[in-house]
Design goal:
The protein has about 90 residues and is mainly α. Helix content is about 25%, strand content about 5%. The model has no long low-confidence stretch (mean pLDDT about 80).
Length: about 90
Protein backbone atom coordinates (compact mmCIF):
# COMPACT_ATOMS: atom_id res chain seq x y z
CA UNK A 1 0.00 0.00 0.00
CA UNK A 2 2.78 2.45 0.87
CA UNK A 3 4.49 1.65 -2.44
CA UNK A 4 1.31 2.49 -4.34
CA UNK A 5 0.98 5.82 -2.53
CA UNK A 6 4.63 6.62 -3.27
CA UNK A 7 4.19 5.67 -6.93
CA UNK A 8 1.06 7.82 -7.21
CA UNK A 9 2.90 10.79 -5.70
CA UNK A 10 0.59 11.00 -2.70
CA UNK A 11 3.51 10.33 -0.34
CA UNK A 12 7.28 10.76 -0.50
CA UNK A 13 9.91 9.11 1.63
CA UNK A 14 10.31 12.42 3.48
CA UNK A 15 6.58 12.74 4.26
CA UNK A 16 6.14 13.09 8.02
CA UNK A 17 3.34 11.65 10.12
CA UNK A 18 2.19 15.20 10.81
CA UNK A 19 1.75 15.67 7.05
CA UNK A 20 -0.40 12.53 6.83
CA UNK A 21 -2.52 13.05 9.93
CA UNK A 22 -3.12 16.78 9.49
CA UNK A 23 -6.24 17.05 11.65
CA UNK A 24 -4.79 15.14 14.60
CA UNK A 25 -4.22 17.13 17.78
CA UNK A 26 -0.65 15.97 18.40
CA UNK A 27 -0.81 17.35 21.96
CA UNK A 28 -3.04 14.36 22.79
CA UNK A 29 -0.35 11.87 21.73
CA UNK A 30 2.29 10.70 24.22
CA UNK A 31 5.59 11.94 22.80
CA UNK A 32 3.70 13.63 19.98
CA UNK A 33 6.38 16.29 19.45
CA UNK A 34 8.79 13.52 18.36
CA UNK A 35 6.33 11.10 16.78
CA UNK A 36 4.86 13.74 14.47
CA UNK A 37 8.30 14.16 12.84
CA UNK A 38 8.74 10.46 11.95
CA UNK A 39 9.04 10.04 8.17
CA UNK A 40 7.74 7.34 5.85
CA UNK A 41 11.35 6.40 5.09
CA UNK A 42 12.12 5.98 8.80
CA UNK A 43 9.10 3.71 9.20
CA UNK A 44 10.02 1.62 6.16
CA UNK A 45 13.67 1.28 7.18
CA UNK A 46 12.84 0.75 10.85
CA UNK A 47 15.02 3.70 11.83
CA UNK A 48 12.48 6.04 13.46
CA UNK A 49 13.61 5.25 17.00
CA UNK A 50 10.03 4.18 17.70
CA UNK A 51 9.72 1.26 20.05
CA UNK A 52 6.70 -0.82 20.95
CA UNK A 53 6.95 -2.27 24.44
CA UNK A 54 3.38 -3.52 24.58
CA UNK A 55 1.59 -6.37 22.86
CA UNK A 56 -2.05 -6.84 22.01
CA UNK A 57 -3.23 -3.30 22.67
CA UNK A 58 -5.55 -1.59 20.28
CA UNK A 59 -6.67 -3.86 17.50
CA UNK A 60 -9.29 -3.13 14.89
CA UNK A 61 -11.30 -0.84 17.18
CA UNK A 62 -8.38 1.31 18.35
CA UNK A 63 -8.42 5.02 17.62
CA UNK A 64 -5.51 6.73 15.89
CA UNK A 65 -4.51 8.46 19.12
CA UNK A 66 -4.65 5.17 21.09
CA UNK A 67 -2.43 3.53 18.48
CA UNK A 68 0.05 6.43 18.42
CA UNK A 69 0.15 6.47 22.23
CA UNK A 70 1.73 3.03 22.21
CA UNK A 71 5.49 2.97 22.26
CA UNK A 72 7.91 5.85 22.46
CA UNK A 73 10.83 7.32 20.53
CA UNK A 74 14.38 6.66 21.73
CA UNK A 75 16.50 9.55 20.47
CA UNK A 76 19.72 7.50 20.38
CA UNK A 77 18.10 5.00 18.00
CA UNK A 78 16.78 7.50 15.44
CA UNK A 79 18.55 6.93 12.14
CA UNK A 80 19.75 3.41 12.86
CA UNK A 81 18.02 0.12 12.07
CA UNK A 82 16.13 -1.29 15.03
CA UNK A 83 14.35 -4.62 14.90
CA UNK A 84 12.05 -5.55 17.73
CA UNK A 85 12.77 -8.97 19.15
CA UNK A 86 9.15 -9.05 20.21
CA UNK A 87 7.07 -11.36 18.02
CA UNK A 88 4.07 -9.10 18.65
CA UNK A 89 5.57 -6.36 16.47
CA UNK A 90 7.44 -8.47 13.92
CA UNK A 91 4.43 -8.24 11.61
CA UNK A 92 4.61 -4.45 11.39
Amino acid sequence: MIGELLYAGKLTLSTRLEDIFTTLNWDTVNGGAKKRLITVEQLLTMSSGLTEPFCGLGGATATLVATLNQGFVIDEQVGSFQHAEDPCVDHL
